[in-house]
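Inputs:
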Amino acid sequence: MPWDRNQMAARAAQELEDGMYVNLGIGIPTLVANYVGDKDITLQSENGMLGMGPFPFEGEEDPDLINAGKQTITELSRTSYFDSAMSFGMIRGGKIAAAILGAMEVAENGDLANWMIPGKLVKGMGGAMDLVAGVGKVIVVMDHTNKAGESKVLKECTLPLTGKGVVDRIITNLGVLDVVEGGLKIVECAEGVTEDELRAATRATLV
Amino acid sequence: MQKIYGSAAEALEGVLFDGMLIAAGGFGLCGIPELLIAAIRDAGTKELTVASNNAGVDDFGLGLLLQTKQVKKMMSSYVGENAEFMRQYLSGELELEFNPQGTLAERMRAGGCGIPGFYTKTGVGTQIAEGKEVKSWNGQDYILEEGIFADLSIVKAWKADDTGNLVFRKTARNFNPPAAMCGKICIVEVEEIVPRGSIDPDHIHLPGIYVHRIIQGEHEKRIEQRTTRKKEEA
């Protein structure tokens, strides 16, 4: 059985170490916050906040307090607020240890595409290009294949790039892959997934 | 110098002209200068270029200026929440210059600091880098991005004193300080104007030197995505 969304998020949470400042993207990456356990992790929200708390209780929503997905959230005792220029200063400046984000395609050289599909609706890159260019470690969490069953892990991206050579580790429903010299290296397979199955589902050079 | 004006329309008097570049604060619908946007709509100023992270929603925020077709061009990082925006963009009525969010913030900050250009690694090797100068330091490529020098800044703060010293609230700060800095004239709308001396000078987020005109008003402060948890889960 491949991992489900929560198992992927739980696996991604293992990448986080005590004391890290981390930015989580929208979708499965958001679930990672549920699995950090006792680790002292500070979540950054790129619209200007460190120390992001959970959703508010009903009736306690504050229009002045949202995350980068525009959802209402809460603050913690450690929270700090700052403007967008400083927020991306800390991102571009390498102060954020890791970003965990979703992707449409990842290539074996670490190229990442997750912001637009030409000819379809174009929404924009938001902060994704800054994050992948600036943070210490870029971890992609996504399904291994698209809805048509085709590998999203490729020799080369076909979609417009978000960043070139930026991805360090890929966590999919089938397993964990690292971007290394010459291609991708299998780190582990999801429980019940064989290495052959993972290889067969991957359209990239495995070393 | 008297910086306090009676209304958004009064504060905008003599400032607006067709074809101008406006920098606006706000992220999504959070911390947007909603009163000034509505007043610009009422003034009917056209052919606007607006630098703003987002474009509001169809019937609120900068979406109001799109409905009336007063905007010629947007400089934004994300425009996903606005159907009218998409329609105008896809039909060629509206120009759109995508900026990575941090690049947009830094372009505003740089403009306000008298910096016409800066190098960043954001966007290297992507569409964003096309046509831009590339320079290499220690084996890493960087692209040249330009500072934004706006004709007008419209921003939202929580509190101001009569000299324009500003305090923002929580994540409503977002793009407001860099947007405020990059305009020749900066107009701020606040929820409360407080007496001089009542804000601890150490707690001022943006000093009044950047602020030329101030208005106070009632804000709708619409929530875009209301997400909550149940008490039982706690």
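Helices of chain A lie at 5-13, 28-31, 84-92, 128-134, 195-200. Flag for discussion at group meeting.
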